[in-house]
Design a protein that fits this description.
The protein is mainly alpha-helical. 49% of the residues lie in helices and 11% in strands. Strand 1 and strand 2 form a beta hairpin.
Length: 106
């Protein structure tokens, strides 16, 4: 199941998936429904404040956005880290996506 919420001009898509049984599927539907109920149309400044409080490493990217900078689609890993501990993970994901983009992976 996939659901989405709007935050400012961005649409954020979230998936919930567990096909093990009907109860798990209902829980997935609940999670997505609750997400939309709680988060859809959340003001951008509220999102930024929450991110700063819970993920202080997002300050660099939030400051850039708030200064009006347009973020490039292919930002070098670590230029705008969301979490300092996630840089290695980001590299792994970015490398995988680059290989897929080049047709080297399915």
């Amino acid at each position: 199941m996939i659901g989405s919420v709007s935050i400012g001009t961005k649409e954020v898509w979230i998936g919930a998936y567990n096909p093990s049984d009907d109860l798990a599927k209902m829980y997935c539907a609940f999670v997505l429904g609750k997400m939309v109920e709680l988060l859809d149309r959340t003001p951008v400044d509220e999102v930024h404040a929450w991110l700063r409080e819970h993920f202080p490493a997002t300050e660099t990217v939030l400051a850039a956005v708030e200064e009006g900078k347009k973020l490039k689609r292919d930002v070098p890993i670590g230029e705008y880290p969301v979490s300092p501990g996630a840089i290695d993970f980001e590299k792994t994901v970015a490398n995988y996506l680059q290989l897929r983009k080049r047709g080297m992976l399915p």
